[in-house]
Amino acid sequence: MEDKVNKTDQTDGKRASTLVNNVLLPALAVFTGLLAGAVIIAITNVATLTAWSHFFQSPLNALSATWSAVATAYGALFLGAIGNPKEIVAAFQNYFATGQTGQLYKAIYPFTESLVTSTPYIFAGLSVALGFRCGLFNIGAEGQFYVGALGSCFIGYSITTLPWFIHLPLALLGGALAGAIWGAIPGYLKAKFGAHEVVNTIMMNYIAILLTDWLLEGPMKASGYRPVTPTIQTTAQLPRFFPAPLRFNWGFFLGLAVAALVYWFLFKTTLGFEIRAVGSNPNAAKYAGMSILKNFVLVMGLCGALAGLAGASEVLGADLWIGQGFSAGYGFDSIALALLGNSHPVGVVLAALLFGILRFGATSMQSLAGIPIDIISVIQSLIIIFVAAPEIIRWLYRLRNIRVERTVLTRGWGQ
Amino acid sequence: MTIILELRGITKAFPGVLANDHIDLQLEEGQILALLGENGAGKTTLMNILYGLYKPDEGEILIRGQKAEIHGPNDAIARGIGMVHQHFMLIPVMTVTENVMLGVEPTRNGIILDKSKAAARIREISEQYGLEVDPDTYIKDLPVGIQQRVEIIKVLYRNADILVLDEPTAVLTPQEVESLFKILKTLIARGKSIIFITHKLKEVMEIADRITVLRLGRTVGTVLPNEVNPEKLATMMVGHEVNLVVHKNPAQPKEVVLEVKDLYVRDERKNLTVNGISFEVRKGEVLGMAGVQGNGQTELVYALTGLLPFEKGEIRLFGKALHQPTPRQILEQGVAHIPEDRQKHGLIMNFPLYDNFVLCNYYLPPFAKGIELQQSVIIANGDNLIKQFDVRTPSSSVAASTLSGGNQQKVIVGREFSRPIQLLIASQPTRGLDVGSIEYIHNRIIDKRDAGTAVLVVSSELDEIMALSDRIAVMYRGQIMEIVEADKASKEYVGLLMAGIHPTEAQKAAAEAEKATEVERVF
Q1: pLDDT (tens digit, 9 = 90+) per residue, A333-383?
Q2: Who contacts A55 (Cβ-Cβ below 8 Å, separation ≥6)?
Q3: A294: distance to nearest CA of chain B, Å?
Q4: Does A269 touch chain B (CB under 8 A)?
């Protein structure tokens, strides 16, 4: 009898702590990040500062100026990223009444475009998360993103005679393969020579970015003055659901499918079991007969393939060609995103959606409210600080301290 | 005699466990109180409460008759309580002085460190209590036994009157234990009071003035050493009569399973630690590899299990020579390995138990179909092994880190024994375990032997070697001193070999004669 009571106690406690750690803490980190962002918006706003300098004459004025600055900024962010709810409802009513699509497309443009922005984040976030699970710190997602994009772009524009059902998969595969090679090189260097993957993936990033610059100026340059590649063939495009300018395409759903695949791979297969074992305790993994070196190469290759797919999805789905500064930091953001998502595929997808919304909403925040786009980077960074130091959140919100094993992210130098 | 420390009705509950249930305890001034109990009996929790690391749910602490509120280690230190932890808290690249003064650094003019003042104080303490520690040596150059003395100095330096030693002998050689005991006696002679936490019955009998026994978070009783014998204490600890001697039939050795010829192994620092070793293990016998720790046993086992490459020589398994095999190649030939360090090699602490149970065969049917894990089979296997190997846990889905040491070891034993095995290599199989778990694991090993498995037991516990082995090989400085038949060797004889001394013919004869009359006692 007593045993039974204890048992339910323990499992309840475990479930509660898992919930707190995996859901509540990241959610509170996002909330706190936005709150801190609000403070920064307020103190960088000239009107607000002026109002505060007259605080003792008219305190209400100062508060309302602050409120209006923050509300305008976040309002614009929300409208820019999701759209105006009223307009969306009206557009749907209009569509069902008249069958006209123009108003509908306009209304859903912001939200679908946020999803388009999320798509490469999903792939790249999965890449970093997979590395974390094996105890590897893949800082090279950015470089793998570039070479993945280059690979699929080349296949996309250079081959002209294939039907889409061969051309598109081939282009995606080319991107994944290019990324895989780019990731496997540092993996092999680590396995063979013990070179730390953090250093080598950073170096591979430089090579990839400069390689891109050279290719855009030379071998892959389209005719004309600008250093850009030719546009890919329509047969290599990820099909879009709506006419231009809406760019929402299959890539998003491909990302969800790959996330599900990564989940299955990590938690339901023998290979995933090995990867998690190596990541949690390489000594025990070796004792149990697993090859640590094989797993390092395999995982870095898979990380590269996923980040390569991120580049592929961007070029085949959204941009259709590559220009300089093509990535806009997707690879680096995805490190933060994997942390926020607790290195779990579901968490990564949710974090990718959030980052997509923030990134795309930021553009309209800049144009509508005059808030610099960089504020979003600040907010993202704050969120990551709160995720990386959960004790701050526990202390701020007086959360009961339930200790659980944290997911192993990566170990120190020289391991 | 005055009571310097008293705990009254201390109760502490963790989710699902009542770690301390109204524990009472009294420490008299100038005495050694042994706190005896199995792993998981609540000893460490109780001491952490005393040291202010946990807050008790109920109960009070009295120091010299006065109620004391202890909210953290600083409070405890201020009240004269000092803790010597099982795992030393020392910085290897710093000197003894630097380590001792860390946190209470004496200064000149408030900013300049006054090392010589601290060093002088350490010399004084060292002399006063016979500790013989040179303040200017680096920690990394000191043997474990001396490092422990540095920990004791740290506590005395902070003017502690009550010393708590948590399993202090777990890391020591028999000689070091002896000198530790000498030090403890000096300490009490000079008026200090000591709480000595242990689960080793022999030590308790030797050193304690009084013994308080804990079981399952409760005080079983407090006794004087001259009122009890080890058997009685063991019964108090585990709650049932314990079989102190492993009953086993004579071995029936058959064909050779493992043959090692002139093996040389270098450790990870490239030092040659195994220096030309040859032996063989046969089906149905236990070969005990005795020796003080650090004489190459670890590297020998690593080489045999594929964790370290060997320099030269030959390892033959079932007659076939192995050429730098991988751990998996060895495992797949039916070799089970109980590793020396269960947390380093044996378990993945954040994995659930059912995953730890299939750590070596997760990729084989029925646990996997192709590359897909069969989760339900893995969980059923875990639930089954928990019952079969008596692992105390609410379910097989909890992380290995939540179990006590003894139960973690049972998980490893369960995993290794559940595979079809021909050769068992067990390294320190019962280190740090309580009597109940030791008895259990020893019996399982003998069962395996009787079922025809070849067994190599590597242990630095002489008692364990004597209890399990059919033949005993003694390792010293990377070589085998001698391999003797267990029924012809006395403990003293093996002890001499462990110390690197070849017994004379006379000693040999005496040992055999003594063995014939010796009543074997394991504890």
Answers
A1: 999 899 999 899 999 999 999 999 998 998 888 888 788 888 888 888 888
A2: A62
A3: 13
A4: yes
Can you name the CATH fold of B243-334+420-523?
Rossmann fold (3.40.50)
Range of the domain at A254: 114-354
* Residue A162 belongs to a domain: yes
Query: Is it the case that residue A400 has pLDDT exceeding 90?
Result: no
With CB atoms and an 8 Å threshold, state whether B327 touches A289. Answer: yes
Domain boundaries, chain B: 3-238, 243-334+420-523, 342-419
SS3 B151: helix
Asked, colleague to colleague, whether B3-238 and B243-334+420-523 share their fold, the answer is: yes
CB of A273 within 8 Å of a chain B CB? The answer is yes
Give yes or no for A414 touching B (CB within 8 A).
Answer: no
B-facing residues of A in 282-311 (CB < 8 A) are: 283-291
Residue A318 lies in a domain: yes
pLDDT tier at A62, thresholds 50, 70, 90: confident
Residue of B339, B398, B399 with shortest CB distance to A287: B339
Residues 6+ apart with CB under 8 A from A347: A22, A26, A129, A340, A341
Q: A154 is written with which tokens?
A: 């080349």
- Report CB contact under 8 Å: B349, A277: no
**Min Cα separation B418/chain A (Å):** 14
The class (CATH top level) of B3-238 is alpha beta
Tell me if A183 is assigned to some domain: yes
Contact check, Cβ <8 Å, B399/A289: no
DSSP string computed for B92-142: TTSBHHHHHHTTS--EETTTEE-HHHHHHHHHHHHHHTT----TTSBGGGS
A269, A284, A407: residue with CB nearest B371: A269
Asked if the Cβ–Cβ distance from A286 to B348 is below 8 Å, we say no
Residue A57: count of CB within 10 angstroms of its CB: 9
Chain B residues within an 8 Å CB radius of A272:
373
Q: Could you tell me what percent of chain B has a pLDDT over 70?
A: 94
CB proximity A408 to B under 8 Å: yes
Chains A, B: CB contacts under 8 A, how many?
A: 89
What percentage of chain A has pLDDT greater than the value 70?
92
Which of B304, B359, B387, B408 best tests the A interface by mutation, with the highest count of A CBs <10 A? B359
Range B443-469 average pLDDT: 91
A60-87 average pLDDT score: 88
In sequence order, the 6+-apart residues with CB closer than 8 A to the CB of B421 are B334, B335, B336, B448, B453
- Whole-prediction pTM value? 0.77
* DSSP labels, B426-471: EESTTTT--HHHHHHHHHHHHHHHHTT-EEEEE-S-HHHHHHH-SE
Per-residue model confidence as pLDDT tens digits over B19-56:
889 999 999 999 999 998 876 678 888 988 999 888 89
pLDDT at site B244: 57
What pLDDT shows up at residue B142? 86
With an 8 Å Cβ cutoff, are A268 and B359 in contact?
no
**Shortest CB distance from B399 goes to which of A283, A405, A408?**
A405
